[in-house]
Write a structure and sequence with these properties.
The structure holds 2 protein chains of 2 kinds.
Chain A (H helix, E strand, L loop, with lengths): L2 H37 L4 H9 L2 H18 L11 H38 L4 H27 L4
Chain B lengths: L5 E9 L3 H11 L3 E3 L7 H4 L4 E2 L6 H21 L6 H6 L3 E4 H9 L3 H33 L18 E9 H14 L3 E8 L3 E9 L3 H10 L3 E3 L8 H29 L3 H20 L4 E2 L3 E9 L3 H11 L4 E5 L21 H7 L10 H16 L2 H17 L4 H24 L20 H29 L3 H23 L3 H18 L7 H11 L3 H10 L1 H24 L3 H42 L17 E4 L5
Parallel strand pairs in B: 4-12
Antiparallel strand pairs in B: 1-10, 1-11, 2-10, 3-9, 5-7, 5-8, 6-7, 9-10
The chains are: A mainly alpha, B alpha+beta.
C-alpha cells in the first residue's frame, strides 16, 4: 500500500466507527422515545432533543476525517505525496476518535434512553438527564482532542 | 445581595376574616406557608390552640375540579389541541385578560350541565364502540359462510338428524373425509369455503351416530361454528350488519357533532379549572393553621424586601389581623430565594439546574456568570452563528410568553450569541470559512497549541478562582487557618509545580513546590488522632494533585468544541462548493449552505451550552459550592391552562 491509502483507511475508520456509535446510540434513544410518545405525543420536542445528543460523536468523526482529507489533499487542490510512514501516522491519529466515538455514542444512547424514562415521569428534570449524558460524551471530546493534536503534529 | 434574607412571619386574625386574608396572601404570592404544628413553639401552644381542618366543602371543590378536568380531557381526546414544537418546551396557555377570566368564572354553574353532556356523550361513544366491535367480530366470523344459501336458524339438531357448521384445519381435511366414509356411511359433507388454513363445511348425518361423529371430530381438531342470536342466510345477515355499522358511524358523528358544539366552552372550562384548582389549594392550606374558637394563627416565611408591602396590605385591608415577624433562628430550615441583578440574572437558570444554595451559602451565580459567558463564546466561536443565535433568541423572547426559567434561558442564549460573535471575530470564524476575514487574534487552525494553552490557562484561572472563593468562605466562617491549609498550601504547591514543569525560574518553583508539599503533608491529616495517621493522610493528600490536573485538562474541551463548530461549518461550505457550477448547482449550494449552517448552529449551541454547564458544575462548583438548599415556594396563584395578561386597552 502507498501512504495515501493507509491515510484513507484512517478517514474511513474515523467517520465510519464514530458514525456507527452515533447511529446505535440514536437508535437506542429512538426506541425508548417511541414508547413514551405512544403515551404522551406532546413530549415529541423534548425527546427529539435527547435523541439528537448521541449524534455528536458521528460529527466529531466526520470532523476528524475531514481534517485528514484536507491534509492529504482529497478535499482541495491536489493529492499530497505521502510516504508509508506518514500514511500510518494519519491512520494512528484517526484511531482515538474512531474508538472512543464508537463506544461513547452507544453508552450515551443508553443513558439517554433512561433519561426518556426520567422525562416521562418528571419532564421538568430534563436538564439533569442531559448532564448525565454529557458525562459520557466527555471522552469523545478528549479523543477528538487527541486526534486533532496528533494530526497537527504530523510533518508533511 | 444574591440570596434574599427571609423573615418568619406570624399572622393572627379573627376567624371571620380568614377567607379574606387567605385570598389576600394568595393573590400577593409572597409568603410561603409553614405548618404551625411543625414549629418549635407548638408544644407550648398545644394547650391553647387546636389544629384546623380543611373546610368541609373541600370535597365539593375537589369533585367539581375533577368534573372540569374530565370535560377538558374528553375534549382533548376527541378534538385535540396540538402543541407546536416550541410550545412543547414552553407549555401552551390561553391568554385571558382579568376581565375575561372573571366573566368565565361567573358562568361556573354551567359546568354541571356541560359535564353532564360530556358524560352522556362519553357513554354513548363507549356504547357505539362496543356495538361496533361486536358487529365487526360477527362479520369476521360470518365471512367464510357467505356462500352458504341456508338460513342459519334452520341449521339445528332435529330428533332424527344432526346438522351443523364446522371448521377443520386444512391438513386434517382429507383424513377427516376418509374417516367419515369409513365410519359413518350416511352423511352429507358440503364444503362451503376454504382459506388455505381452515376448511369450512356444512355437515349433517343421522342423530344416532352423533357420539361417534363427535369423537371423530374431536380427534381431528374440528370446531363448531355457532351463530346463536342471528337468523337469515349469512349473506343477508352480513348486509344487515354492514347497514348497522353505517348507522353506528352516523350515530357517532352525530354525537361528536354535539360535542363539537360544546367546544366553545373550552376556554371557560380552562379558566374554571384553574380557578377551582387554586380554590382547592387555598382550602388545603387551611390544614397548616391552628386556632381557637374565634381566631386563627398562620405561620410562614416572607422575603425581607416584601415585608413592608405585606405589613401595610394586611393592616389596611383587614380589621383584625396582626402581623408579627422575627429573624430566622440559626438552625431553622429557611427557604432560599435567589435574586441577581443585571446581566447575572439569566445565569440563575444554570445554578438552579445544579442545586439551590443553602441559606448562608454564597450564591455562585454572579461568580459563574462571566465564565459561562466567555466559555459559551469560545465553544461556539463563530460570528455568523453568534448573530443568528442572538437574533433567534431575541425573536423567541419577544414572541413567547414564558415562565421565569424560560425567559432566563433565552436571555442567556442572547448573551451567548454576543459572546460567540466576539470570539468569531477574534478567532476568524464566519459561518466556518464562508467569509474569509483574517482573525483579530490568531487562527486556532494555524496555531492549535496557542489555543489549547489559552483554554487550559483560562481553566486554571477558574479553578484558582473557585479555590479563592472557598478560602473566602473559610475566613468568613471564622476558620482562617483552614483557608491557609486547604487552599493556601495547594495554591503554593500547584504554582510551584507549574513553574517547575514550564521551566521558568526553576529554583523558585522547586522551593515553592517543596514548601507547599510540606505544608500539605503537615496539615491535611489534622482531623486524624494519632501522629502516624496524621502523617500518612497528609502524604496521601498529595495524590489529589491528579484531581487538579484532570480538572484543568477538562478545559481542553473549550478548544475542541470551538474548533469543531468552525470545522463543521467548513465541511458544509466545501460540500456546497461541490454542487456549484450550473444554475441548479447554485440553487443546491444555497440550500446546502442554509440547511447545513442552521443545523450546525443548533447542534453547536446545544453542545456549547451543556459542556459549558458541565465545566461550571464539576470543575468550578465543586471547589466551593455545596448546594442542597430548599427553594422558596410561596403560596400563590398557579395556573395550568390560562395566563392572565394585561388587557390591551390599558
Amino acid at each position: 500500500m502507498e501512504g495515501i491509502e493507509i491515510a484513507m483507511l484512517g478517514v474511513a475508520l474515523a467517520v465510519g466507527l464514530a458514525g456507527s456509535g452515533s447511529a446505535i446510540g440514536i437508535g437506542i434513544v429512538g426506541q425508548s422515545a417511541c414508547g413514551l410518545i405512544s403515551e404522551d405525543p406532546d413530549k415529541f420536542g423534548q425527546t427529539l432533543l435527547l435523541q439528537a445528543l448521541p449524534g455528536t460523536q458521528g460529527i466529531y468523526g466526520l470532523l476528524a476525517g475531514f481534517l485528514i482529507m484536507q491534509d492529504i489533499g482529497i478535499v482541495g487542490e491536489e493529492l499530497v505525496e505521502l510516504t508509508v510512514w506518514q500514511g500510518y501516522a494519519f491512520l494512528m491519529a484517526a484511531l482515538p476518535i474512531a474508538i472512543a466515538g464508537f463506544s461513547s455514542g452507544i453508552y450515551q444512547g443508553r443513558v439517554l434512553a433512561s433519561s426518556i424514562n426520567l422525562i416521562a415521569k418528571r419532564p421538568e428534570e430534563m436538564g439533569k438527564g442531559i448532564v448525565y449524558a454529557v458525562m459520557v460524551e466527555t471522552y469523545a471530546v478528549f479523543a477528538l482532542l487527541a486526534t486533532i493534536l496528533m494530526l497537527f503534529g504530523i510533518d508533511l | 445581595m444574591p440570596i434574599i434574607d427571609m423573615k418568619k412571619v406570624y399572622l393572627l386574625g379573627h376567624r371571620q376574616e380568614r377567607e379574606k386574608i387567605f385570598n389576600l396572601l394568595h393573590g400577593m404570592g409572597t409568603v410561603e406557608l409553614v405548618d404551625v404544628k411543625s414549629g418549635e413553639g407548638w408544644k407550648e401552644f398545644q394547650e391553647l390552640l387546636k389544629p384546623e381542618q380543611p373546610p368541609e366543602d373541600i370535597s365539593k371543590v375537589d369533585s367539581k375540579r375533577s368534573d372540569i378536568r374530565f370535560c377538558l380531557d374528553f375534549f382533548q381526546r376527541h378534538f385535540p389541541v396540538r402543541k407546536s414544537m416550541i410550545e412543547q418546551f414552553t407549555g401552551s396557555r390561553l391568554d385571558l385578560t382579568g376581565e375575561q377570566f372573571n366573566n368565565y368564572i361567573k358562568t361556573l354553574e354551567q359546568v354541571e350541565e356541560i359535564h353532564r353532556a360530556c358524560r352522556e356523550a362519553e357513554e354513548n361513544l363507549v356504547r357505539i364502540r362496543n356495538e361496533e366491535t361486536q358487529s365487526q367480530n360477527l362479520i369476521e366470523d360470518l365471512k367464510p359462510w357467505v356462500s352458504l344459501d341456508l338460513p342459519l336458524e334452520e341449521v339445528e339438531e332435529g330428533s332424527w338428524t344432526m346438522m351443523d357448521l364446522f371448521i377443520v384445519p386444512i391438513e386434517q381435511y382429507s383424513a377427516l373425509q376418509e374417516n367419515l366414509i369409513e365410519t359413518v356411511s350416511e352423511h352429507c359433507l358440503d364444503e362451503v369455503f376454504s382459506d388455505g388454513e381452515n376448511v369450512y363445511f356444512f355437515f349433517s348425518a343421522l342423530a344416532e351416530k352423533k357420539q361417534v361423529i363427535d369423537e371423530l371430530f374431536r380427534g381431528k381438531a374440528v370446531t363448531r361454528a355457532s351463530f346463536p342470536d342471528v337468523s337469515g342466510t349469512p349473506s343477508d345477515i352480513l348486509d344487515s350488519l354492514n347497514e348497522k355499522l353505517e348507522e353506528l358511524r352516523q350515530e357517532r358523528s352525530a354525537v361528536l357533532n354535539e360535542v363539537e358544539k360544546l367546544l366553545v366552552h373550552r376556554p371557560m372550562l380552562m379558566a374554571c379549572y384553574d380557578y377551582m384548582d387554586n380554590e382547592h389549594a387555598k382550602h388545603q392550606a387551611v390544614a397548616s393553621l391552628a386556632g381557637t374558637d374565634n381566631s386563627f394563627l398562620l405561620e410562614g416565611w416572607a422575603p425581607v424586601p416584601v415585608m413592608d408591602d405585606l405589613e401595610t396590605t394586611v393592616s389596611e385591608k383587614t380589621e383584625t389581623a396582626i402581623l408579627t415577624s422575627r429573624d430566622p433562628e440559626p438552625d431553622e430550615d429557611v427557604p432560599v430565594l435567589l435574586h441577581n441583578k443585571g446581566p447575572a440574572d439569566p445565569y440563575e437558570v444554570v445554578t438552579r439546574l445544579y442545586s439551590t444554595p443553602k441559606k448562608h451559602e454564597l450564591d455562585p451565580t454572579p461568580f459563574m456568570a462571566p465564565f459561562f459567558f466567555l466559555f459559551f463564546g469560545i465553544c461556539l466561536s463563530d460570528a455568523g452563528y453568534g448573530i443568528m443565535l442572538g437574533l433567534l433568541a431575541f425573536y423567541l423572547y419577544r414572541k413567547l410568553t414564558l415562565g421565569q426559567s424560560g425567559r432566563q434561558l433565552l436571555k442567556l442564549l442572547m448573551l451567548g450569541g454576543i459572546s460567540a460573535f466576539a470570539f468569531g471575530i477574534l478567532l476568524g470564524g464566519y459561518f466556518g470559512d464562508l467569509i474569509e476575514l483574517p482573525p483579530l487574534l490568531f487562527d486556532p487552525l494555524e496555531e492549535p497549541m496557542t489555543m489549547l494553552i489559552a483554554a487550559l490557562g483560562i481553566g486554571l484561572f477558574q479553578v484558582y478562582f473557585g479555590m479563592g472563593l472557598q478560602a473566602y468562605r473559610n475566613m468568613k466562617g471564622g476558620k482562617p487557618m483552614d483557608a491557609l491549609y486547604d487552599q493556601g498550601f495547594w495554591f503554593l504547591f500547584l504554582n510551584g509545580l507549574i513553574l517547575l514543569v514550564v521551566g521558568i525560574i526553576p529554583p523558585i518553583g522547586l522551593w515553592m513546590t517543596i514548601a507547599g508539599a510540606a505544608g500539605l503533608v503537615l496539615t491535611q491529616g489534622r482531623s486524624q488522632h494519632s501522629v502516624i495517621l496524621k502523617f500518612f493522610s497528609g502524604l496521601l493528600s498529595l495524590y489529589n494533585v491528579t484531581q487538579y490536573l484532570s480538572d484543568v485538562l477538562s478545559y481542553s474541551r473549550l478548544f475542541a468544541l470551538g474548533l469543531a463548530s468552525v470545522v463543521i461549518g467548513m465541511v458544509v461550505n466545501s460540500v456546497g462548493e461541490l454542487a456549484a457550477g450550473s444554475i441548479i448547482g447554485y440553487v443546491v449550494l444555497v440550500i446546502i449552505l442554509i440547511g447545513g449552517h442552521f443545523f450546525n448552529m443548533i447542534i453547536s449551541t446545544l453542545s456549547s451550552y451543556v459542556h459549558t454547564s458541565r465545566l461550571q458544575y464539576l470543575e468550578f462548583f465543586n471547589k466551593f459550592f455545596e448546594g442542597g438548599g430548599r427553594s422558596f415556594q410561596p403560596f400563590r396563584v398557579k395556573n395550568n391552562y390560562v395566563d392572565i395578561v394585561e388587557s390591551e386597552e390599558s
